[in-house]
Amino acid sequence: MTHPISVSLLLLASVLLGGCDSGWFAGKPAIAFAPYGDAYPSKPDFAQVEYEYPIPLKQLAKVTPKYLASLEQEQLDQLYARLGSGPIPNGAFDGEIVFPRGSSGKLRAAEIIGGLKGLGVNFKGRMLETAGEALWKGKVFYRDEKILRNRIEDLAMLRPVIGPGDIPKIDVDGKDAWLLFPAKLYCGQSLIDSRRESIIIDYAFTDDIRGYREKPDFLAGRRGLKVRDEIRMVRPGLYLGRAYMDHAFILNFVLYNKELDHAGRAEFETGQVRDECWSGTQQRVVAAR
After folding, report:
1. 4 in helix, strand or coil?
2. How much is the pLDDT for 157?
3. Residue 32 contacts residue 71 (beta carbons within 8 Å)
4. Which residues contact 214 (CB under 8 A, 6 or more apart)?
5. Do 228 and 202 touch, CB atoms closer than 8 A?
6. 177 pLDDT band (50/70/90 cuts)?
7. What is the mean pLDDT of residues 169-190?
8. Percentage of the chain surpassing pLDDT 70?
């Protein structure tokens, strides 16, 4: 019989590492990717990819979470490398997890978390993916405070590790969402592409954030799963994210806010949306035409 705390830790991994199609921009994006193979030496240099395969704004305008979920991991990596940070988001975003596959056939998250014996995690197969999609519904950004909290719509699975006391919640589209697992927001170096900064969602030192709950919030931090996310903007209201545990890449996720997507359309089409983080020395000129 699986221990309830082990299951809860499993669920937490899905919650933190990290759906909706806008239906607003019609057509599948025609985004080109550099050729690649399975071996690491065959992976192309990101600077060369951006120089040879710039992404026009009209193609980024067509990107949806469903399209992103259809890409291979190398394609997601190449796409992410050609994005800028955009502005640090504000408000509630819907979330969708996009899992890469490990070489053994299991989810990479399951393989890596399974090695964290100190947390007592024990599970197999698709359990992590299914639990994460059912439990995690997105993130809420508090831009001015430079913090973030995760939206949880079902607390039942986390009850074994949640301590006593009231849990703050927010209404999103008429549904209550509990706010757990705070993180700090800042601009910082991307772990996959150091040519320009990403927006970092850092859980390492969140115990000094107002409203921090030792249980279960500590599980995401430096004494738990050591989670660190980074995101870049596809367009206003749509961000592509990458989640790490102890610097090991686990999975991709998508954040989407329909209202911001619509409101930012005019500015996006003119190429005037500014990166809030350091944009690097390689300019994305063609992409803004």
Report:
1. helix
2. 63
3. no
4. 163, 207
5. yes
6. confident
7. 88
8. 73
The single residue listed with the structure tokens 């607390």 is 155
C-alpha dist (Å) from residue 139 to 90, 98, 172, 210: 10, 15, 11, 17
**What's the CA gap between 146 and 274, in Å, rounded?**
18
Cα separation of 248 and 109, whole Å? 9
Q: How confident is the model at residue 36 (pLDDT cuts 50, 70, 90)?
A: very high
Amino acid at 265: R
Rounded distance between C-alpha atoms, residue 189 and residue 196, angstroms: 7
Q: What is the mean pLDDT of residues 42-57?
A: 95
Cis peptide, bond prior to residue 216, ω within 30 of zero: yes
Stretch (H or E) spanning 133: helix 127-135
Encoded amino acid at 167, one letter: I
Write down the pLDDT at residue 104: 44
Residue spans of beta strands (DSSP E) within the chain: 91-98, 136-142, 147-152, 169-172, 175-189, 197-202, 227-235, 238-245, 248-256
Exposed/middle/buried for residue 289 (C-beta within 10 Å: 0-12, 13-18, 19+): exposed
The helix-helix angle for 127-135 and 4-16 (nearest 10°) equals 70
What are the structural domain ranges in the chain? 4-18+85-288
pTM of the model: 0.85
Query: For residue range 55-92, what is the model confidence (pLDDT) as tens digits?
Result: 999 999 999 999 998 999 999 999 999 999 999 999 99
